[in-house]
Design a protein that fits this description.
The structure holds two protein chains of two kinds. By secondary structure, chain A is of the alpha/beta class. Chain A is built from eleven helices and ten strands. In chain B, the strands form five sheets. Chain B has a nine-stranded mixed sheet. A four-stranded antiparallel sheet of chain B has the order 10-11-12-15. By secondary structure, chain B is an alpha/beta fold. The chains are: A alpha/beta, B alpha/beta. At the A-B interface, strand 1, strand 2, strand 9 and strand 10 of A face helix 1 and helix 4 of B.
């Protein structure tokens, strides 16, 4: 579904992604783990066309999208849930969600928009109850649901999420991840960028570890959970320092 | 049966994507964690960020057996020792052995690899698998053991003992699958004949033979003698152990587990990459190993690859049987011996000239090795029989202790072994018909 080869991207003189390769197959949940500054957000921005790739290729459903405009990328079915939700605080939940189907609405497909809205409400019943409430008054968890819902309104095949667990209470994180885990049933493929490795590896099929713009490890979730580097760096497992044999 | 429907039948394009991804992260890890690779890449002015495809592998320097020997014991490990769950080693008869370490994930992948081979050979959870490889520092025993358990077969770690004992187990335990070195299987087959036990009366149906080169003739012989389907497999400790490649039911070459290992063929003289179908030295790069990753490891094994797809549906490329070595490595009874090791032993013993000849033969299914050694004219009282016998016994014992193989030592007159002046002396005569 998504195939990236030797992708390089950055800001000005700063080279953030130093030639990374990865793929996401249909129906998979793939997680990209990495510390702050590793290049996770840059990667998602580059795939979505917000940032221009400097080298390498991005193929979405067998077509190159590295030079395609971002709204066209959304139109082809690849949607980003940005970091920090980025909702319109002064609009209602319903309006925020409907905006996600902007491309559909513009073509006058009112009925489809309505159907999709119903689907989102089914996925997040709490949003249905509060559909007229202003987004800015919602809790962090509910805002995240709106952000995910808004992305789904575009009818994507691939949904990319930038740290959906950020700033959420553990209970809410669980709730959000349980919902994300259901997305493949709805025919969605998920690429997830996370610092919360524990929660995301529980729902992911596979993952990559990004360090300073390079992918240093990949494997199934179980393989990553069993890797000591991942345990040390991202799962907070503590090791007594021992002298290494030389 | 194809065990891993996903990875064993990946379209080549997707497989290449996977290989590139795994190769790149392997390179970053070895560059960070293995000082040998950092030095090697820096010294050769290789920028690993420039490795963008499988073809770009050719820009990277090789890793040799000598490099690995120098790393003894742990210098090539890419993880701290506390992350290692298992340690194996090569026989290491020339100087230091090569020590390899496996992390939890390495063991998991290794298990998957041998399980694939077993499944490809038709082994299922209904089978009783007798593994007659040594269960020790060598990888043969444990490598297949894990895979067979994963398949769900009943595993008998019979290890190496006498052929009679293997046959007793085989008959009484109702073994259906035999895993061992081909020479050992020959031994078992000929012992069966001696004991006048008909192979049909046993439950054997499949044999997986590897760890030393063998041939189609031997396959026919073993299939008839043991009443089985005999399948070939390939692996080496440095790369992972058994499980690098193995035959499917079509017996038309061994499928390389390319999602774990990238294979290249090079010209052993110029070191240039060759077209895969051309015969040359096999070079492997591991792309999933965490503990002991290798980049472009020169195996010394001569073979070639088959690019045409196989009838079994696997997309993994196949390799032909190993047809030779770039060095003069001798395979005897599942052991690896270099003539130079014999030479070293002879040099340590007073009274012999460094002129020798190794004669390999097969008698009643047993590999035999004879070492003919010239004695020095200056050897004190070399016409005294007692002295000569003592000298012969010393050499015999040393060879057995150091190399772990039994050799018949014959002392010969000074200057009696033919020497081709200038040309490389023919030190090894192999009379075994493979």
């Amino acid at each position: 579904m998504l195939k990236i080869r030797n992708l390089e991207a950055g800001y000005g003189k700063l080279r953030v992604l130093k030639g990374i390769s990865l793929h996401v197959s249909p129906g998979e949940i793939v997680i990209m783990i990495g510390a702050n500054g590793a290049g996770k957000t840059t990667l998602l921005k580059t795939i979505s066309g917000i940032l221009k790739a400097r080298a390498g290729s991005i193929h979405f459903e067998d077509q190159s999208i590295s030079t395609v405009a971002m709204e066209e990328i959304v139109n082809r079915g690849c949607v980003l849930v940005p970091e920090g939700r980025q909702l319109f605080d002064t609009l209602s939940i319903k309006d925020n969600l409907t905006l996600g189907a902007y491309l559909l609405a513009r073509r006058g497909k009112r009925r489809e928009v309505k159907e999709r809205l119903e689907e989102i409400y089914e996925l997040f019943p709490v949003l249905h109850e509060r559909q007229d409430q202003l987004a800015g008054t919602l809790s962090g968890g509910e805002q995240q649901m709106v952000a995910i819902g808004r992305a789904l309104m575009a009818g994507p095949n691939l949904i990319m999420m930038d740290e959906p667990s950020m700033g959420l209470a553990p209970l809410l994180v669980e709730k959000i991840f349980t919902t994300i885990a259901r997305l493949p049933e709805l025919g969605k493929t998920v690429l997830l960028v996370e610092q919360n490795a524990r929660a995301s590896l529980d729902i992911a099929d596979r993952g990559y570890v990004l360090e300073t713009g390079q992918i240093v490890l990949s494997g199934t979730s179980q393989e990553l959970l069993d890797n000591h580097d991942v345990q040390r760096a991202y799962l907070g497992k503590d090791y007594k320092r021992i002298e290494e044999l030389s | 049966m194809i065990l891993d429907q996903n990875y064993e039948t990946l379209p080549r394009e997707e497989l290449e994507q996977l290989q590139v991804e795994r190769l790149q992260s392997t390179l970053y890890r070895v560059y960070r964690y293995v000082s040998f690779y950092k030095q090697s890449f820096d010294f050769n002015a290789v920028n690993i960020e420039k490795i963008k495809s499988i073809q770009d592998l050719a820009q990277l320097p090789f890793t040799t057996k000598e490099d690995l020997r120098k790393s003894y014991p742990y210098d090539m490990f890419a993880v701290p020792l506390r992350d290692i769950l298992r340690i194996h080693s090569t026989s290491g008869t020339t100087g230091k052995p090569i020590i390899v370490g496996y992390t939890k994930n390495d063991l998991r992948h290794w298990t998957d690899c041998t399980a694939r081979l077993l499944a490809a050979a038709g082994v299922t959870d209904h089978d009783v698998v007798q593994i007659a490889f040594p269960f020790n520092l060598f990888t043969g025993g444990f490598g297949f053991h894990q895979g067979a358990e994963q398949i769900g077969a009943s595993v008998i770690p019979s290890s190496t003992s006498t052929a009679e004992k293997q046959i007793m187990i085989m008959r009484d335990f109702k073994t259906t699958v035999l895993i061992c070195a081909p020479s050992y299987a020959v031994n078992i087959a000929s012992t069966l004949e001696e004991l006048q036990i008909h192979a049909e009366s046993l439950n054997l149906r499949v044999g997986l033979f590897g760890a030393e080169p063998w041939s189609e003739n031997l396959r026919a012989q073993l299939e008839a003698g043991l009443h089985i389907a005999a399948l070939d497999n390939y692996g080496l400790t440095e790369v992972i152990g058994p499980g690098v490649a193995g035959e499917c039911e079509h017996k038309q070459g061994m499928h390389v587990n390319e999602d774990h290992f990238i294979v290249e063929v090079i010209d052993p003289k110029t070191l240039d990459p060759l077209p895969l179908a051309q015969e040359g030295e096999l070079v492997f790069t591991t792309i999933t190993k965490e503990g002991f990753p290798l980049v472009r490891y020169r195996t010394g094994d001569i073979s070639s690859l088959i690019e045409e797809p196989c009838a079994c549906g696997r997309t993994l490329r196949r390799m032909h049987r190993v047809t030779g070595r770039t060095d003069d490595l001798i395979f005897i009874k599942g052991q690896k011996v270099f003539p130079s090791q014999i030479e070293e032993i002879l040099l340590e013993v007073e009274g012999t000239a460094p002129h020798y000849r190794i004669i390999l033969d097969r008698q009643e299914g047993n590999d035999t090795m004879e070492v003919q050694v010239e004695i020095l004219e200056s050897f004190p009282a070399f016409d005294e029989l007692k002295n000569l016998e003592r000298l012969r016994d010393t050499i015999t014992r040393k060879i057995e202790v150091v190399l772990g193989v039994e050799a018949k030592v014959t002392l010969v007159e000074p200057r009696s072994l033919l020497r081709d002046s200038g040309a490389k002396a023919r030190r090894v005569v192999d009379n075994r018909t493979l």
